[in-house]
Amino acid sequence: MSVIGEEVEVVRSTDPSKVGRKGTVVLETAKTLLLVSGGRKVRVEKSGILLRVSGSGKGVSGEELSGRLEDRLGARSR
Questions:
Q1: pLDDT at residue number 76
Q2: What is the largest CA-CA distance in the chain?
Q3: pTM
Q4: Number of alpha carbons in the 13 Å side-chain half-sphere of residue 11
Q5: Which has fewest Cβ within 10 Å: 21, 25, 29, 35?
Q6: Domain limits, the chain
Q7: How many Å apart are CA 30 and CA 17, to the nearest integer?
Q8: May I ask the CATH architecture of the domain 7-73?
Q9: Which residue(s) pair with 23 in the sheet?
Q10: Distance (Å, whole) CA 30 – CA 57
Q11: Are 30 and 68 spatial neighbours (Cβ–Cβ below 8 Å)?
Q12: Is it the case that residue 74 has pLDDT exceeding 80?
């Protein structure tokens, strides 16, 4: 699953300061997501978060997104 380009909101996090953060995912690393909202950038660790993806309203845990995107996508086709 890729969330790049998706509008997301952090609904639960082990870091309370990240809860409620919203933005468009513009970059994904093995351990973090970079959100942009109103010209501001916020880096959020994947570990310990739950995201709500706008449009679908689907909840996605950071653990589902752990690792590099290309490794997750490649693992399905092996």
A1: 52
A2: 39
A3: 0.83
A4: 12
A5: 29
A6: 7-73
A7: 21
A8: Roll (2.30)
A9: 8
A10: 24
A11: yes
A12: no
